[in-house]
UniProtKB/TrEMBL annotation:
Homology family: Belongs to the DadA oxidoreductase family.
Start and end residues of each FAD dependent oxidoreductase domain: 19-412
Record-given protein name: FAD-binding oxidoreductase
A Pfam family reported for this protein in Swiss-Prot or TrEMBL: DAO
Keyword hit for Oxidoreductase: yes
């Protein structure tokens, strides 16, 4: 079972018509709804399960510029600015703190990768820098080993995933957005070649635009409408500890363990270098598009053939809009954590920081990360279906960039000048002859 999420009271009565329907109430969907509502746009936010019940409440909680792809840099900088406003916008504590984030290098090759990233990031005037010696040791009080170098961004921070999206959803409601949970959107209706409505399990909502922020479910929803979205999923395991006194305040990443201090005094912990990729039919459908990523991540991805292959093979790709859809059959992706991956991180953490020897694992969980071939999200209108917009494929980077992505999507939907150039995030980059580019540092 996933973490306990702050509750949000949904609306009951489905509207006959709104300007925009947003599908998915994770961090991207709630931010999109908020920024649309701020513009006076009428919004229905529909979620098949509960607010933030999937990866948006299960991620590390990092709000980072460090290590971003160059194509994401303008958008994360906008997101960082918006995070600073989010407590005021929501009237709640989203948990935002800025103690910095440091990636630690245990080899010369890794340190050289940090230097290459810094050379790229310099053009964006970030406060990132390489740290060594006493400055690095100060970030790691009580550590039993040293590292070659650290890539530190002092302005980076953290927030609480179980609090942020619910607070943002509530703020959108106060501005007039209507929130419906346990209300799966089964599909789209079109008129004169443009989106005209969605059909939900509770009924029809007429609209002029639809935003799909469906995370790991986006590929399936698009396929229902003959739209090819190359997207796969990765299972990421996390656990949290009981409160710990004297541990690091900065977020830290090492090749074996990553950690973030929580508001409750404990820590969220993950393996810094291991996730599970369960082989499913889409791995074969998108094999060549994902091959560069698979090669680049071969040391960190654990491939496994499991029952999911048969489950997804049997899952309907098409369904009638007046009958239950696959989204109603599975309200919330709640995979089991991979114990061996978590245990490796737990063992290394206690060796690295003896202060954790007295701590206990309070809870463990896993979530499904939606990934694209180039590890860059899609934030775009779909040219083949006017009025249909997609925001997905954040590849494990979505929580921190969420406010920026939501603002950009609201601008695209309303035709306002975009806060950043949306070209790198276009839906059709996988089909227009562009060669996918994967940045590795």
């Amino acid at each position: 079972m996933g973490p306990v999420i702050d509750p949000v009271t949904p609306h009951e009565q489905l509207p006959d018509k709104v300007d925009v329907v947003v599908i998915g109430a994770g961090i991207i969907g709630t931010c999109t709804a908020l920024f649309l509502a701020e513009r006076g746009v009428s919004v229905a936010l529909c979620e098949k399960g509960e607010v933030a019940c999937e990866q948006s409440s299960r991620n590390w909680g990092w709000v980072r510029t460090t290590g971003r792809d160059s194509r994401e840099m303008p958008l994360i900088q906008e997101a960082q600015r918006l995070w600073d406003e989010m407590n005021a916008k929501t009237g709640a504590d989203t948990g935002l703190r800025r103690p910095g984030i440091a990636y630690l290098a245990d080899s010369d090759a890794k340190a050289e990768g940090f230097e290459r990233w810094l050379a790229m990031a310099k053009a964006h005037q970030v406060d990132s820098r390489l740290v060594t010696g006493a400055e690095l040791e100060a970030l790691m009080p009580g550590a039993t080993r040293t590292y070659k170098a650290g890539l530190l961004t002092p302005s980076d921070g953290r927030a609480e995933p179980q609090k942020a999206a619910p607070a943002i959803a509530s703020a959108a409601q106060r501005l007039g957005a209507k929130l419906f949970t346990r209300c799966a959107v089964r599909g789209l209706e079109s008129e004169a070649g443009r989106v005209s409505a969605v059909i939900t399990e509770r009924g029809r909502i007429a609209c002029s635009s639809v935003v799909l922020a469906g995370g790991a479910w986006s590929r399936l929803f698009c396929a229902r409408h003959s739209l090819t979205l190359p997207q796969l999923t990765v299972r990421a395991s996390v656990f949290r500890t009981t409160p710990v006194e004297g541990g690091p305040d900065s977020n830290l990443w090492t090749p074996k363990v990553a950690l973030r201090k929580r508001l409750d005094g404990g820590y969220s912990i993950a393996n810094g270098h291991a996730n599970l990729a369960e082989i499913v039919p889409d791995h074969f459908a998108f094999f060549f598009q994902f091959l560069p990523a698979l090669r680049a991540e071969r040391g960190s991805l654990k491939l496994k053939l499991s029952s999911r292959f048969i489950e997804e093979l049997r899952r309907p790709k098409r369904w009638a809009l007046d009958a239950p859809s696959p989204f109603e059959a599975n309200r919330c992706l709640d995979p089991d954590p991979v114990d061996s991956i978590n245990q490796e991180a737990w063992d290394d953490l206690r060796q690295l920081f003896p202060v954790f020897q007295q701590a206990q694992i309070a809870q463990a969980w896993a979530g499904m990360i939606d990934v694209t071939p180039d590890a860059v999200p899609v934030i775009s209108e779909v040219e083949q279906q006017p009025g249909f917009f997609v925001a997905t494929g954040f590849s494990g980077h979505g929580f921190g960039i969420g406010p920026g992505a939501g603002k950009l999507m609201a601008e695209l939907v309303t035709g306002a000048p975009p806060c950043v150039d949306p070209t790198p995030f276009r839906f059709n980059r996988y089909s227009d002859g562009s060669k996918p580019r994967l940045e590795i540092y």
